[in-house]
Amino acid sequence: MENAPCIMLSQLKYLRALSFNNFPLESVPDSIGELIHLRYLDLSETDIVTLPESLGNLYNLQTLKLYCCRNLEMLPVGMKKLVNLRHLDIRETDLHEMPKGMSKLKNLQFLSDYVVGKRRENKITELGALANLHQSISISKLENVVNSSEASMARMFDKDGIRYLKLSWSLDEDENIVDSQIERDILDELQPHCNLKQLEIERYRGTRFPDWVGHSSYHNITTITLFGCLSCCMLPSLGQLPSLKHLTIIGFVSVEIVGAELYFNQNGESCLETPPFPMLETLSFYSMPSWKEWRSLGYNAFPRLRELSIRKCPVLRGDLPNNLPSLQSLKIEECDELSCCVPRAPAITSLSISGKHLVGSVVEAITNTQLTCLTSLSISGCSSHIWFPVSAIPPSLQDLTILDCRELEFQMDGQHKSLQKLLICESCDSVASFSLLDSFPNLVTVEIEKCEKMESIVVTSSLSSLRFLTINNCGSMKFVSTIWMAAPQLERLSLLRCPEIDLSAPGLPHRCLRSLFISYCEKLVSSAFMNSQFHGLTDLSIHGGYDESVSVKSFPKEGWLPASLESLKLFFIFSVETLECKGLAHLTSLHELSIYHCPKLENMEGEKLPASLKQLSISGSPLLGKRCEMKDPQLWPKISHIPAIQVADSYRGGSVQYILEGYSSYGKQFKIRLSKGRTEIEAADKQRRECSEIGITIGATI
Questions:
Q1: DSSP one-letter string for 627-639
Q2: 3-class DSSP state of 138
Q3: Lowest mean pLDDT among 2-6, 104-108, 124-128, 223-227
């Protein structure tokens, strides 16, 4: 198949469009330069390292897509000859620089990226002649711009079709020796047209931003992201942008105070009739290690702010803006010095707080504040003792998450009837017998993970709404049987890495349980099914738990699995060598069998897999996968009746591995289907004439 593209291209002289998107292609043959009628070429998501110089012969080419060609480092020197090119997509490539002479491509309307070079013919000045650019452009390696004169020759302000602009500098170890004023002047000359809607600036090396960043004349800007501007000692003035909805500020390590400069321009520009950030809806601060204070100064800012996120600001102290009337979501993580974190926000519905001091203060605030709209609460990362009365939980709360709060204890002083989802992870170490579920009678989902000291779950009242239960990585957990009686409507159960749990305790048969995900343990597996509690099960997944000590050699034993199964998945059972067909023979409703990462699995014993199977998937199990691919005579009769067999990323049966799409000069589409070992060229009957006229034989193999 390596020569397939070369052979095919030699026969498709009149192609107008060609796509190798996501094809296992490492090189493009020189013969592509002979397809002079080509208008559209898509090489996205391939492994190509270089493109042939003959690409420059495609003078009719209008669209070239190279998205996500991560091994591509250079474009051909002859790119400047593609004078009819209108669309060039080089996102997610690793180009070192642009080829010379990009200014000659005057018909370009979309240029996803421009990587600034150091040579005269690939500097930023080449952008000046590309007057028709629109949509979006990302300009990188701006450290190669020597002065503001070069920047001005890019004529960014004249490009009124650009809606999204990203300006980025490379991470530079010598950043401390740059001239801050020159950097500011360069950014000043890169000022875009006022039609801009989204702006992203990454690793700008100046200490302050030019005045155009945040100027109120940018009345269309809705989104701004500022990232890794390490030398900036103050944030730009953004409060007067009339349409700004989303603002993200990341990695401003030199900023210590956020104050008036964020709300109003330093030259006095302001509109007293309009509060700062009049339309802002989401605001995020992340990784600002020197930030100490947020001075809100009573400007009545952020009247429409819905989401506020502050993360990794370890020395931030004091108060947040106090009056946020529209705030619905507040997330604070790793801000250990921030003591008071719940502003006056009557509309808040989601609260996520992490930190040793913050968790205690938020529990106190919840107890003393009427958060009547709160539906989601997450608290995490607290090592101090916390006493949390159930009666203090807001009546509106539906989702409660407790993470890494080992000393937290609940005071069960009432029932809370609105809570539907409860997640407890690495918490409540003082509780061996967990009886909290009685306080939440309308739970739908319960997840208990990594609570190593918890030994039992005790339920004495009805959990008639419970549908989904997960208990993972609870090494001491032994008894959960009271849940069977309390939750008759349970549909999905997950028990991973809980080796002490015994499912053989008496209880009602679970007619509603449809999905079970358990770790392999002979005691657990046999106890789960031998007493027929799960005889209505349709979906079973068994996980080896990445445990090398699991010593099972063959699976499953005869009579183990419930006859109602429709789907069976085996994951990471490293020791299993043989799949027992006899143990599956009674599964007359089984449609899907999936085997993932069972590296020693090689054999199938017994007559054949169930006749009801529609799909067999094998991945990360090379011994069995190879025998299937080779149609091993001892194995193949046991699986040949299955319509779809997937081995790793290849398909057998009626499925197709790769499809190349092309068009003749008549505009008729060809579909060239590739499978291991051969290529079949196919077309509809009405396309046979067009195929024959360009030398393509229907059904030919190469």
A1: HHHTT-TTTHHHH
A2: strand
A3: 2-6
- The token pair that represents 443 in the structure block: 């739970």
DSSP for 362-410, please give it: HHHHHHHS--TT--EEEEE---S-EEEEGGGS-TT--EEEEES-TTEEE
Q: How confident is the model at residue 679, as a pLDDT? A: 38
What pTM was computed for the model? Answer: 0.81
Q: What is 472-531 written as a DSSP string?
A: ES-TT--B-THHHHH-TT--EEEEES-TT----S-----SS--EEEEE--HHHHHHHHHT
Identify the CA nearest to 555 among candidates 577, 587, 526, 588: 577
CA dihedral of residues 541, 545, 548, 549 (deg, nearest 10): -90
What is the arithmetic mean of pLDDT over 53-62? 94
One domain, residues 587 and 687: no
Q: Are 144 and 116 in contact (CB under 8 A)?
A: yes
Phi, psi of 548 (to 5 degrees): -70, -20
Residue 452 lies in a domain: no
Q: Which amino acid is at 87?
A: H
Same domain for 188 and 156: yes
Same-domain status, 590 and 688: no
433 part of a folded domain: no
Q: Sort strands 658-663 and 17-19 into parallel, antiparallel or unpaired.
A: antiparallel
Is 622 in the same domain as 684? no
634 shares a domain with 572: yes
Count Cα neighbours of 386 within 13 Å in the Cβ-side half-sphere.
32
Q: Which of 137-151, 221-235, 336-350, 430-444 has the lowest mean pLDDT?
A: 336-350
CA-CA distances (angstroms) from residue 254 to 201, 229, 629? 16, 9, 59
CB 480 within 8 A of CB 454: no
Total number of domains constituting the chain: 3
Residues 649 and 663 in one domain: no
Return the closest-CA partner of residue 371 out of 319, 310, 327, 423: 327
Same domain, 648 and 679: no
Q: Is the pLDDT of residue 702 over 70?
A: no
Angle at 221 between CA 220 and CA 225, to 5 degrees: 170
Say if residues 13 and 34 touch (Cβ distance below 8 Å): yes
565 plus 627 within the same structural domain: yes
Q: How far is CA 352 from the centre of its chain?
A: 20
Average pLDDT over residues 470-496: 86
Structural domain includes residue 32: no
Higher-pLDDT residue of 525 and 458 is 458
Q: Which domain holds residue 557?
A: 538-655
Query: How do strand 421-425 and strand 257-258 relate by DSSP bridges?
Result: unpaired
Can you tell me which residue has the tokens 């989902």? 445
Q: Classify strands 658-663 and 669-675 as parallel, antiparallel or unpaired.
A: antiparallel
172, 195, 218 — which closes off a domain? 195
| C-alpha span between 370 and 360 (Å, rounded) | 17
Peptide bond into 556 cis (omega under 30): yes
From 160, 195, 230, give the residue that closes a domain: 195
Write out the two tokens for 406.
């080992």
Q: Which two tokens stand for residue 604?
A: 């199938």
Helix, coil or strand: residue 653: strand
Residue 414 lies in a domain: no
Q: What share of the chain is helix, strand, coil (3-state, %, to 5)?
A: 15, 25, 60
